[in-house]
Design goal:
It is built from nine helices and three strands; from the N terminus they run αααααββαβααα. By secondary structure, it is an alpha+beta fold. The structure holds iron/sulfur cluster (SF4).
Length: 230
């Protein structure tokens, strides 16, 4: 994982993180820890034989890949929302408006004739400024004109998360972002709903998107926690 927060998240919300009776995730390794593990075991990836990734986690789509960049979660969600609304795939799955390193990206995305007003921010100070604006608008009796907000705590998104290799600057961020978009572009499947494992999960267990079970198991709540334990 690019994110050190995942180490905390696998043990939070007892009920949600262990709905099967055992914890869903045993252990979280950050990207940095994985790299150290690979080095310490002397693994030379270039000389390893090709093999299939384990299922179900091995199957992924371009939509999953771009979750790692600012704007990527929104772009992936819009691709699938469009399919959900129309039954057809977006002619061009690339939502350029939500891409790039601008600190706040605001605009309208046309989803089958409906203008969806979006805001994408990354970096906590930008998130704070946006949330304060929404709060003050609300206090002044003004309705927020936004339909869909994406916030990523790390500048550039998870490609620059706390568990990533040290020495991340904007040049490195841009290179990692370009790498993820290239991977998405080359993916045969670029939308979450095209992932066979996801389709099977809904068919055999969750029912349909937004079902009661899906809502209960795939959503969470946030509350303030102290920085340090007493
Ligand atoms: S943006 Fe940063 S804090 Fe948020 S999930 Fe990604 S790595 Fe973790």
């Amino acid at each position: 994982m690019p994110c050190t927060a995942k180490k905390h998240e696998i043990r939070r919300d007892g009920e949600h993180a262990s709905s099967s009776g055992v914890y869903d995730v045993d252990l979280v390794l950050t990207t940095r820890e994985l790299a150290r593990l690979i080095l310490s075991r002397g693994l030379d990836f270039a000389s390893l034989p090709e093999s299939e990734a384990d299922s179900p986690i091995g199957e992924y789509t371009g939509a999953g890949t771009i979750f790692g960049v600012t704007g990527g979660v929104m772009e992936a969600a819009i691709r699938t929302a469009y399919y959900g609304l129309t039954g057809t795939e977006l002619a061009d799955p690339e939502i350029k408006l939500v891409r790039g390193m601008d600190e706040v990206k605001l605009g309208e995305v046309d989803v089958n004739g409906r203008k969806v007003r979006v805001a994408v921010v990354h970096g906590m100070s930008n998130a704070k400024a946006l949330l304060e604006k929404i709060k003050s608008d609300k206090a002044a009796g003004k309705e927020s004109n936004l339909d869909f907000i994406e916030i990523m705590a790390c500048r550039g998104g998870c490609i620059a998360g706390g568990g990533q290799p040290y020495g991340t600057d904007d040049r490195v961020r841009e290179e990692r972002i370009a790498g993820l978009y290239t991977d998405d572009e080359k993916s045969a499947k670029r939308c979450s709903h095209q992932n066979p494992s996801i389709q099977k999960l809904y068919k055999e267990f969750l029912g349909e998107p937004l079902s009661e079970k899906a809502h209960h198991l795939l959503h969470t709540e946030y509350h303030q926690i102290p920085l340090y334990k007493d």
